[in-house]
Amino acid sequence: MGRFVEVYFELVAADFDGDGYEDVFLSQNFFGTRSETSRYDAGRGLLLRGDGHGGFAAVTGQQSGVAIYGEQRGAAAADYDRDGRLDLVVTQVGAETKLYHNESARPGLRVRLAGPTGNPESVGAVVRSKVGDEFGPAREIHCGSGYWSQDSAVQVLALPTAPQATIVRNEPSRNPTLEGRPPGLLSDAIRNVQKYSQGETLQNVQGNGDFGPSIQFDSKGVDFGPWLRRFIAQIRRNWFVPYAAMSLRGHVVLSFKVHRDGSITELQINQPSAIDAFTKSAFNAIKLTNPTVPLPLEFPDENAPFIVSFYFNETPPGGGSQ
Ligand SMILES: [Ca+2]
Ligand SMILES: [Ca+2]
User: Fold this and answer.
1) CA 164 / ligand 2 centre spacing (Å)
2) Is residue 219 a contact partner of residue 196, using CB atoms and an 8 Å limit?
3) Ligand with smallest separation from the Cα of 19
4) Which of 5, 194, 238, 268 has the most CB atoms lying inside 10 A of its own CB?
5) How confident is the model over 178-222, as pLDDT tens digits?
6) Nearest-5° angle of CA 78, CA 83, CA 84?
7) How remote is the CA of residue 107 from the centroid of ligand 2, in Å?
């Protein structure tokens, strides 16, 4: 192994067989050695299967299907055909690039993070699966993973061998704008507020339920219609509903101040959800929305206090689900 490490050029860490343990692929060989050293030319590209405890065992080319003769260089993992099995691409010096289709891995769950503007792939984020009390490997979304190469930002996470639970959502999503996400009802709630804003002046929407309306603030008689639409669109983009909302429900109430320049301060949780993921999701939605659009010029004060409620798989009071 010590000898072997000398001659790899690129290392790709990924779970190539879908068993939940990280494996490693090494691109090998190097011909540009000094004249007194013979060239490194004994590798065909090596797959090492991880046992999840720090051990790796070499997989033969006959088994892995990887047998590249010549100088291998950059390599990257990506599930290019979206079948839940990680595929492999390896470049060579002076020879064709090899693309290997993974045909035998146990298919996993494809996860693509949707980051904020400026970092749409969420580079720097770490993704882990959790099954029971067991965590899967931590995957960092990275750009530039090795020699002139970059792994896909779409992660493939191994799934448990036996179903842990079957979750059936028995109500259709009432929120078509959050396609592909679990039901979260901020937009429905906001539609309620927009009803108030139709008549030029936005009213101070007072609470009418157990935990208040979806958005509370005092417009001071200023037309907040266009501002509110942009603000809401921003929150929607930054609001990632956790998968817990497939089976659980809850709501989170936050308060904060929006300043003239659009900066948001004093963000705090007025009412957390018993589901921690919901609280974090709501909090981050506002955090990522900072700074938002500058307040309307006519607004008389330095800042406007807001109270916003996020609903997860739950209907806001006062009927926000039309
Ligand atoms: Ca593996
Ligand atoms: Ca694939």
Assistant:
1) 24
2) no
3) 1
4) 238
5) 333 444 444 443 444 444 333 322 222 333 322 334 777 888 888
6) 65
7) 8
